[in-house]
Specification:
two-stranded antiparallel ribbon, five-stranded mixed sheet, alpha/beta, Trna Endonuclease, Chain: A, domain 1, 384 residues
Length: 384
């Protein structure tokens, strides 16, 4: 039961319940309408936003369509570009392959040529190696020769013989010539007086020189130097005593050293030995200076022989002068013969010309003129 002032409402009354239900429904309806109004007012911005969103969606759709078209265009362009790039790459690849082929061919050709040249050089190296081996054997053989005193002396004599044979005429020297004192010289040069025949003797103090070159300590150098001086002095004295004979040989002799090194050592470090040789009238020569000395001797021999043959030369000149006079005389006679022959040829030419003229007149039937002139124009032919 509900009391509202003086009015009492029975909640168990159906009418009351119905009225209450209707009232409640009305209230709910009003509230619903109010809520709908509020919702409508609230939804209007949303609708606008939805509309704008739809417009944007449409714009996005159009943009998507344009993007799709652009992507299609880009795809087509990319396809064309890729095709062009592939074509260009293929063409360049072909060019590169062709260039590489030409380069490889040229490289192979140059390589083959280089290998051929290398082979030739290797062959030359092999030949040079063979020559070097042969030369090494020759050097070893030369060392064996020089290690023995007798063979070393023979080596010097052979070298001296070779130089003399090349420098002088064959009849101007004699090897192993025996002198009046019974000594045998390696070579005797037949020079005219003065100075007269001169002896060349070969000496080779190699042992003392090699000892000097090997010496390191001062004592060893001193001992080797003393041995070299002793050997050279002994050679100078022996040549001076054996090969300088008054009235038979020249007033001096030559000591031949078959080694430029020993010769240079003496002149560089032992000038006193050279002066002692001058004092003993023994001149030391090497292969080079010996050749120069022999060339001077050759000039002396040539001058002497020219003086000896001066009379014969004058006689030959007189005979030559007479022959020249005969030639001049015969040339004059030949000139006379040529003059006479030329005159005869001129006469023959004149006769031939006249004969030609007569033949021309005969060909023209000019007999009367030919008969009138036959006696006056006749030229006798020369008789041999």
């Amino acid at each position: 039961m509900i009391e509202l002032g003086e009015t009492r409402i029975d909640l168990s009354d159906p009418l009351v319940l119905l009225a209450a239900g209707g009232l409640i429904a009305l209230v709910l309806l009003l509230r619903a309408v109010a809520a709908a109004n509020r919702t409508t007012r609230a939804v209007e911005p949303l609708a606008h936003q939805i509309g704008a969103l739809g417009s944007r969606v449409e714009s996005l759709s159009d943009g998507q369509n344009r993007l799709a078209g652009g992507l299609t265009h880009v795809s087509e362009l990319q396809s064309k570009t890729q095709a062009h790039m592939l074509e260009t790459m293929e063409r360049r690849l072909e060019e590169v392959q062709r260039s590489m082929g030409e380069t490889l061919h040229g490289t192979s050709t140059r390589t083959a040529r280089s290998l051929g040249e290398l082979q030739q050089r290797l062959n030359q190296i092999d030949k040079a190696q063979a020559k070097i081996e042969k030369l090494s054997g020759d050097v070893l053989g030369l060392q064996d020769i020089l290690s023995n005193k007798q063979t070393r002396g023979a080596f010097g004599e052979i070298q001296l013989n070779d130089i003399v044979v090349k420098a002088l005429p064959p009849d101007s020297f004699r090897f192993q010539a025996t002198l009046s004192n019974g000594r045998r010289a390696d070579c005797l040069i037949h020079l005219p007086n003065p100075p007269g025949p001169i002896v060349i003797d070969s000496k080779f103090p190699l042992e003392s020189y090699e000892a000097l070159r090997r010496a390191k300590a001062p004592r060893e150098v001193e001992e080797a130097s003393r041995a070299l001086k002793t050997a050279v002095r002994g050679h100078i004295r022996a040549i001076s005593e054996r090969y300088i004979i008054e009235g038979e040989t020249a007033d001096g002799a030559l000591l031949f050293l078959p080694s430029e090194a020993v010769y240079a050592e003496l002149h560089a470090n032992y000038p006193e030995l050279v002066r002692e040789g001058f004092a003993a009238r023994v001149w030391i020569v090497s292969p080079t200076t010996c050749m120069a000395t022999l060339n001077t001797m050759r000039a002396v021999l040539k001058d002497a022989r020219m003086r000896e043959q001066a009379g014969a030369i004058r006689k030959q000149l007189a005979m030559l002068h007479r022959d020249v006079e005969l030639v001049v005389d015969r040339v004059g006679k030949l000139g006379n013969h040529f003059g006479q022959a030329r005159k005869d040829l001129d006469d023959i030419t004149t006769a031939a010309e006249r004969a030609g003229k007569r033949a021309t007149r005969l060909d023209s039937f000019d007999f009367e003129e030919v008969a009138a002139k036959d006696e006056t124009e006749a030229v006798p032919l020369p008789r041999g």
